[in-house]
Amino acid sequence: VADAVVGSLVDVVGPGHVLTDADVRVGYEQDWTGAFGGPARAVVRPGSTAEVAAVVDACRAASVPIIPQGGNTGLVGGGVPEGPGPPGRGEIVLSTRRLQTIDPVDAAAGQITVGAGVTLLALQERLAPLGFEVGVDLASRSGATLGGMAATNAGGTRVLRHGTMRGRVVGAEAVLGTGATVTHLRGLTKDTTGYDLAGLLVGSEGTLGVITALRLVIDPRPAQRAAALVATTGFDAALATAVGVHRRLPTLEAAEVVDGATVELVMATLDLPPPVAGHPTWYVLLGAAGPGDEAEDLARALDATAGPSAVGVIDAVVAGDGPRVDALWRYRDRATESLAAAGPPRKLDVSVPVSALAAFVAAVPDAVARCAPGAVLHVFGHVLDGNLHCNLLGVPSGGGHRVDDVVLDLAVGLGGSIGGEHGIGRAKRSFLHLVRSPAEIDAFRAVKSALDPAGILNPGVLLPA
Amino acid sequence: VADAVVGSLVDVVGPGHVLTDADVRVGYEQDWTGAFGGPARAVVRPGSTAEVAAVVDACRAASVPIIPQGGNTGLVGGGVPEGPGPPGRGEIVLSTRRLQTIDPVDAAAGQITVGAGVTLLALQERLAPLGFEVGVDLASRSGATLGGMAATNAGGTRVLRHGTMRGRVVGAEAVLGTGATVTHLRGLTKDTTGYDLAGLLVGSEGTLGVITALRLVIDPRPAQRAAALVATTGFDAALATAVGVHRRLPTLEAAEVVDGATVELVMATLDLPPPVAGHPTWYVLLGAAGPGDEAEDLARALDATAGPSAVGVIDAVVAGDGPRVDALWRYRDRATESLAAAGPPRKLDVSVPVSALAAFVAAVPDAVARCAPGAVLHVFGHVLDGNLHCNLLGVPSGGGHRVDDVVLDLAVGLGGSIGGEHGIGRAKRSFLHLVRSPAEIDAFRAVKSALDPAGILNPGVLLPA
């Protein structure tokens, strides 16, 4: 191997885990939406925390930047190289996928310790027969790793009841940019013995350290899951339905809105039948999980909220058994991949107070039309979290930054944020000033310098240059 | 005023809010247990975030250390000066008590923004008529400020259901050691736009910044609170009772154990009657809060768990109305002040996994007897959090450090921690290495240097010299 850094990585992990051939590297270099990526010098796949530390040391010694990567399911370009650089000067992609340890369940504490490279689906499948579950769930479960989900503070469809990753991570092990390995995995309910490094790593998008293991809170598995898909004539009716059912049903864990155009795109992409008759403009998908007859409870709460006399409700379907629940969820879960197949779309993951959602939804089509004529807007998201995913297809070439700016500014002006659950990555770093003051960004830079003084971890991600 | 720094503080806050007379300063210089404190150069009471920033700037310019102080109810010496220093070179105590703003309740979000100097009791009294409550509760509610509670990641008696301050703080404003003011108070459910500075400040014990305001999650106020006091013949029976009732009663919010010696001390100090007949060795106090008949539900769960045939249960009293509930709580809530009146005690706030509690309780008396003969041990705490407060009266002069070491080491050896909810402060800084590796402590120091480069905030607190 001609490249000295690559040679030192081979010394650490063995030749089989340093990928240099272009056709093998490509799955790590390009994000799956096709919107972000570039050539890496090499992809390294360490198999233990000690190997991660040795990789970080080798890269520090050679001043070669590292891109930490989990399942490469991110949507903001935070886990792939920036783009074409000078030959022989690219970044190293550090894949955590081989950190596959799953410790035994600690049933007394309701916790488990897992390697960062374990996928959400793998952990879900390990826990289910033991009567537990992860709490967090999201559509990219088969690829998304828990380390990546922690690094981006992922949310998903059950935040309403179970919180984001920030609330689920009660301990972490990581190799910091300094090369030091920090480990705090006891997961004690009360333990105030210094700064919360685990919490600092959550949402830091790989810029402070490479997370190698996590201590996670897990939940008892509910006896039954039910779902209802409600078709409405407008966003207000969809929101009112979600709010009303939430008030009546403590076991509600998901409330997802999807606009009619997106449901139609999913139907066309996957050749699915319409879930209800007619042409609703907004759907709301409700999920309940608990010990009782969740389908009956959900139907009752829905009747009380959105009965025949409710304004704007067209129809509703309730499902209580696994396959029928899954069938309803397809209209929501498959939205991202259907949009990717038609795209790549511009993706804007905004957050506003729930009380400002209707104003945002009312204003966003005009805002898009003004600055990106001809673009098609698809909106779906987690309505009771105030978190909407705005996807734009057909944005005129060169018009992307302008439309991002307008949509993000609209959210911020309504008391919201430019980053809900996808993070900032490379996609939104130039907009960070919309939600963070110069004093906050200075503090971020100071923390970054403290834990990654050489700036080798994910340069160009999260913080603007 | 002869002292130039004091003069500049007077310029910032006015002469009425810079306290230099010894008899006025004393309430800020000495902690209330009498175990920690020393003379301050002056006490300054800024009335706004801008004034806090100006105070920090003035002290930075003069290289004078600042001790941030809330209600001065801490138990580890983290909010008072270190002790006698050279004349004219003492620290400035920065009291946040004048930061008294309470914004209107945001009922839609279930949140409120408050000034750091608001006491827990004041916020409880503001929220009660509006149908909300703070979620966190602790015995020092009338003095403890929310800023201080956040800085120490306070827990208290309802963590079981409502979490510690870490889970309640969803935004913060603070003046960092750099002098910069950072503000992030939107409280959005999903907002991943940089490092979690609010989370970093929680539990940092005033060493990174002075918290000036907080965005807090609040909870709907339950219709009824009930309590039960159960007398047992040993710790195992008390623990089993708490675990069994918790499994059966989702509205359980508190499970406190108190040993017999402590209940007897409270009775003697406050001239209270025995709560039950006989001489139990351990009590467990259970609290439930919810929409139903909580006293009935608690009695039923207790019968199923600790009925007449249960091993080790002597007697139980259940109360459902306010005054009788309060009367039962006195045997727990007044323990700290009764011990202070008899002391000052050595206070060790340890945390172990719930599964290791019985082993800890069994081993600690011998450990104490070996290294502090004649000392009297009083134990109480939050049993389902694994958090016990060990109080030692009559420790021989000079034997304190040794007995601290032995008890803390015992907890750590059982998978626990040296700091449950009181923090590290000055009291336990020399034991931090028992639970934090050199790599972690290095990382703490790097974060400290990043946000307080001159080291003027609470030097000597949390981090060993």
List the helices and strands and how they pair.
Two copies of one chain form a homodimer.
Chain A: H1 4-13, E1 18-19, H2 22-29, E2 42-44, H3 49-61, E3 66-69, E4 92-95, E5 111-115, H4 120-127, E6 132-133, H5 146-151, H6 159-162, H7 165-168, E7 169-176, E8 181-184, H8 197-201, E9 209-217, E10 219-220, E11 224-232, H9 235-248, E12 252-259, H10 260-270, E13 282-290, H11 294-306, E14 313-319, H12 322-333, H13 335-342, E15 346-351, H14 357-371, E16 376-382, E17 387-393, H15 400-413, H16 438-451
Parallel strand pairs in A: 2-4, 3-4
Antiparallel strand pairs in A: 1-2, 5-9, 6-10, 7-8, 7-9, 11-13, 11-14, 12-13, 12-16, 15-17, 16-17
Which ranges of chain A are low-confidence, i.e. pLDDT below 50, for 5 or more consecutive residues? Answer: none
Multimerization status: homodimer
The count of DSSP E runs of length 2 or more, i.e. the number of strands of chain A, is 17
Helices of chain A, by number, come to 16
Measured between the Cα atoms of the first and last residue of chain A, the distance is: 33 Å
State mean pLDDT of chain A (0 to 100 scale). Answer: 95
Helix content of chain A: 25-40%
Per DSSP, what share of the residues of chain A sits in E-state strands of 2 or more residues?
15-25%
Radius of gyration of chain A: 22 Å
Largest β-sheet summary of chain A: 7 strands, antiparallel
Q: Provide the structure class of chain A.
A: alpha+beta
Largest interface: A-B, 69 and 69 residues
Looking at the structure, what is the overall shape of chain A? globular
Widest β-sheet, arrangement of strands of chain A: 14-11-13-12-16-17-15
